Give the backbone structure.
Amino acid sequence: MAKIPKKRKAVLAKYDKNALYNLADAMKIVKEITYTNFDASVDLDIVLGVDPRKSNQMVRGTVMLPHGTGKKVRVLVLCGPDKENEAKDAGADYVGLEEYIDKIKSGWTDVDVIICTPDVMPKIGPLGKILGPRGLMPNPKTGTVTMDVGKAVTAAKSGKVDFKVDKYGIIHSPVGKVSFDPEKLVENAKELISTVMKLKPPAAKGTYIKKITASSTMSPSVKIDPKSIV
């Protein structure tokens, strides 16, 4: 039998891994059981009672976390010259078109969000095989294909999070950093869960929110009682 490291033992002694906690207690525990040397991300996993293989049960959307994610978001805006100044004034890290299309074709994807204007989508469409698997493909549904690039950049920089249920029916999303006060993590988590609730597909039957867990980048997960939130 493998020996459990001392640090792991100390973590497991701080909480009951099989118990269901309310959201506030869960966030406090996640902070207590994180021992990384960096400011780890705090994430929520929400297991939904949907079948994502069916188009009428797909759950995807965006949420503005009231306290942001704590992460520096690198934004690329692909647009024509008429929108470049607007994007730069809003704080975009990279702005242009042809040069960045060529860079992406060569394998460059060192950004967190890509925003574009509708008129350049025909040029960006062929990049789907590169950007799609990385979750970077601009999409009108998430507000990343828009003429209002300044507003989109500001939203991306200030805590906008895109989420989508995976093939197992689970939504994975960051809700802040371990350095955040527990109250801020709770408020961010509530905003995410509330948004997911509003997106319940009419075709979804039975229990919609089946399971919620919270964890940091390198911590074990803490189970949250959905009834304490929903």
About this structure: The longest strand covers residues 41-48. The radius of gyration is 20 Å. Residues 182-198 form the longest helix (17 residues).
